[in-house]
Amino acid sequence: MTIILTAHLFRWRQKVVARKVQEAHNTPADYAILVERIPKHLAKSEKLLKEDVKEFFETRALNRKKFPDVKVKKVMFLYRYSEYYKLVDKRDSLMKKKQKLLVDKYYLD
Fold it and tell me: How do the domains of the chain map onto residue ranges?
């Protein structure tokens, strides 16, 4: 019983630490915007389309009075993003299984 309680306490503390680390460290993913179904025919090339998207967000999508210093640093197109998210979900599922196996192996022996 003590081992189970210790494992739960350890897991809870790990979640608290992970949350604090996430809040303290910003990454580009914290500021990402997903825009779907941009028509490819709007520009002659992908480079021009990226420039158009960047210009749109810098001039029209932001409230310049409220956010005068916000700039678009990079525009990336992600094709087949549904496949990407499936892979991310699979990775997360495997990580949870791994964590469960480690807890079962080391804390329930």
Answer: 33-77
